Amino acid sequence: MYSFxxxxxxxxxxxxxxxxxxxxxxxxxxxxxxxxxxxxxxSPETLVSLTGIAEMKGVCAEDGALSIxxxxxxxxxxxxxxxxxxxxxxxxxxxxxxxxxxxxxxxSLANNDPAACYPSAALASGATIVTNxxxxxxxxxxxxxxxxxLEEGEIITSVRFPVPEAAAxxxxxxxxxxxxxxxxxxxxxxxxxRVAVTGGSEDGVFRWSAAEDALSANFxxxxxxxxxxxxxxxxxxxxxxxxxxxxLIGVMTKRAVAAAQ
Amino acid sequence: MPKDHGIGxxxxxxxxxxxxxxxGNYTDDINVYGQAYVxxxxxxxxxxxxxxxxxxxxxxxxxxxxxxxxxxxxxxxxIPCGWQVTDLHGEPMKEPAHPVLAxxxxxxxxDPIAAIVADSLEExxxxxxxxxxxxxxxxxxxxxxxxxxxxxxxxHDDLGDNLCYEWGFVEDNRAAxxxxxxxxxxxxxxxxxxxxxxxxxxxxxxxxxxxxRANDHSTLHTTSQNPxxxxxxxxxxxxxxxxxxxxxxxxxxxxxxxxxxxHYAEEAFVTFASKACNRPVKWTASRSEAFMSDxxxxxxxxxxxxxxxxxxxxxxxxxxxxxxMGAYLSTFASSVPTWLHGTLLAGNYKTPLVxxxxxxxxxxxxxxxAYRGAGRPEATFQIERVVDxxxxxxxxxxxxxxxxxxxxxxxxxxxxxxxxxxxxxxxxMDKLEEIADLSGFAARRAESEKNGKLRGLGVNCYIEACxxxxxxxxxxxxxxxxxxxxxxxxxxxxxxxxxxVGAHSHGQGHETAFPQVVAEMLGIDESMVEIVHGDTSKVPxxxxxxxxxxxxxxxxxxxxxxxxxxxxxxxxxxxxxEASDADIELKDGQFSVAGTDKSVxxxxxxxxxxxxxxxxxxxxxxxxxxxxxxDPANFTYPSGAYxxxxxxxxxxxxxxxxxxSAADDFGxxxxxxxxxxxxxxGIGQGVGQALLExxxxxENGQLLSASYMDYAMPRxxxxxxxxxxxxxxxxxTHNPLGVKGCGEAGAIGSPPSVINAVIDAMQSGGFKVDHxxxxxxPGRVWAAMHG
Lengths: 261, 787
Known about the structure:
The complex is a heterodimer.
Chain A lengths: L4 E3 L4 H8 L4 E4 L5 H6 L7 E4 L9 E4 L2 E5 L4 H7 L4 H8 L4 H6 L2 H7 L6 H7 L3 E4 L3 E3 H4 L14 E7 L3 E8 L6 E10 L2 E7 L7 E2 L1 H9 L24 H18 L2
Parallel strand pairs in A: 1-3, 2-3
Antiparallel strand pairs in A: 4-5, 5-8, 6-7, 6-8, 9-10, 10-11, 11-12
Chain B lengths: L15 H5 L15 E7 L5 E7 L1 H4 L4 E6 L35 E2 L5 E7 L2 H8 L3 E6 L6 H4 L15 E7 L4 H9 L3 E9 L11 E7 L4 E6 L4 H13 L6 E4 L15 H13 L3 E4 L2 H7 L6 E9 L5 E13 L27 E9 L13 H19 L3 H8 L6 E2 L5 E2 L4 H11 L5 H10 L3 E10 L7 H7 L7 E7 L5 E5 L8 H13 L6 E4 L17 H27 L7 E4 L2 E4 L5 E3 H9 L14 E6 L8 E11 L4 E12 L6 H21 L29 E4 L19 H20 L13 H9 L1
Parallel strand pairs in B: 1-12, 10-11, 14-15, 20-21, 27-28
Antiparallel strand pairs in B: 1-5, 2-4, 2-6, 3-5, 7-15, 8-13, 9-10, 9-12, 13-14, 16-17, 18-26, 19-20, 19-25, 22-23, 23-24, 26-27
């Protein structure tokens, strides 16, 4: 790790100001950034910690939506997001207790790791990502591997999830990292079903529209018979081929539908 | 009633108190005044020529003490190999030079090029980035068969090819084996790969070198399983430091599994640099460094053929193996695929003819050496997989086929040079069938199938050669050291005892189990006995811990030394009671005169030895301390039968272990709890190999699984509750405790039963798969089913 300065602002305004400096980098729970720094793969001059900002923390249910502060850690979401059980279950299944007590929803979404869990929930829920400057629809937010619509210095202050009628997340873990080899989030709303897939694609999280159409017509696992994902564009690595991942997406989607509550 | 003390009791491990409360003293816990830190600049390419290395700018960086390169080690010895294998033409194996720091060429990702010694680790790392380095990349040699093809790039230019040796065993049997296979009623053939593993002990390697100008003495603290072996190899072969000027200390060590047997370049470096810089120098491996510098394990590619006659008797076995040595010969690398593998290929069976051919190959990968089991897991996996496949091909019950071919009379001279002194393979199989509830399997399978899962049952046997090893035998086979061990029993004036042992405990529980033996022999409380190990300045000598040898070899030395103590103590007691030596009996810590009510206590005798006011000084010396060296007459041969039941999710390929049962014959057992723990841990690593772990290189020699993001270590929820039993006991016939060793059994015995079970599950679902290579990870299982 190279030497760096660290700032610990207590308000969003102070954090934005601090991030305006050269070579400043926001630090959420640090579950990706700290290992990256330890490997000397990044060398920010200043880290701006977002974990001391009270206005960015907490889970709040109102008007059929669940709003989660960008600095809220996974353990808190797992414990407090009872208005959206599938989301609480997803948060409770990320990493291990140490990760869940440090990692934050804002950090996860801003990082957009192609095997992270949260992006699938945001996309399948049609969530709104609220920043210090604007609101971004999840459909417009994710932009391929480790890339999002966030501008330099922009901070996710909260995420607003419309609570669905039924939803579930099914993750098939990569055996070593236990990140999602394939994770599928299915959410059923009055106006249709949304299905988002993490872990599988070379382009990161995506909506599986063929499954959405089939499930919007008939919300049952059987509706997916004959519906499949093209293996083209899926990840091939040590742990499985593109064809395997495409197959797993079908299996996990069916299981998510069966488990949706 | 189980015993509550002495041999056969299960006291809790006394060392665990410090391990579990953070009070252990590991090498990285040791910091000395003036200590500097070294960071190694390592190659990020697998194979290349160093065309430029300029350290001048880096040397001026803040905090830098000195930067070393290969040039600083010209004239310094090469990291040695401890075992010379003779090839099938009678020629010695090829032994390339292994410099402490790369000289001219880099040969694997992780090969150290330069070493930066600085006041702090951060400053050393900063300076490393300022070293100007040019490497002309050369084609990487990765695949073993391609490495032996004409025109392959050469890992070592001076060797002419990439073949370390071709070994044939027993070469005189080769033609007869070929003939038997040609004339067999049935031949089952299997081609397989024994996957490469990274040992991953919880504690990474650490080395701290200190040099004392005052008395020209070097001290190395290191994470080693065998400090005397390191003193020998480093002192005599690399740095030229005589034993009396070199102390090697391996304090608490957090797991070894074989990978901490070997002498590594970093140990030699810190010892050398501490003298050159006149400052203590410390190196602590990061986990990433461990992946690319700890010797890896396994990595054999094998074709095995089993011949059977019309009555399903095994008539011959032929094994053709390519064994990966990696880029350099690690300390015992050459012995693993040969004498620790070829000699075990009779397995538990009376196959009359066996021939093994091994080609040991250099590649641009991390050196490969012994890992828990070392050669014996590879042998067991081949035999037990090919026997299982034969049973399926012949349509016979795999257990019945094994039973039919079991060796049943002991001692048994195998056709592969070793003689099993004792064993009872029928008894362990009977016990396994009982504890594994094999008769209930059909019902359990039906239940799994009701839930949409496939269920498979896999069984295997194993035999291993432990208690390594008779020195005269291994000397003939190429070992460059004796493999005896030593113990000193120091009885103090008050009767307390320190036992200095050459074995090294890095998780095995010696500090608990060894005192149980001494206390039992003397009839005193175990708390009066303490074990001292891991320090060449305290322990007279020892060859360390590996090959399940500690109790069988070092424990035997400890017994012999304790017997000497008893003999002397009886003389003292006889004097105190004015009786004849021959009439003295020792029981429950009391010396008594046979047939009388006269007795003296243990403490009275020990006190007399050190305060010899009333003492037979004319006949015996004061004091009570004895040393014994013990060289075993034979290997020991633990054996057993294992059963694994898996559930396989056909939709995802995920395999879960539902039941695992192990019936082992370890001979006599000193601490059953520790033995069971060793079996649990061994099975955990065996299951890791079978289902999860895989050190994979790409065609450029880059390690793809170079961190825990991609190298799948077994975790608690990957493992089942085990049913283990060691009640079948045929004591070793040639050591005083009748013990055989238990440390490696689980890792040797478990992989075949896991894969046999996976194959059984797949076939039960109609998938025509008769083999898959390890690990049976979900993606690979699914690919095998849908391949």
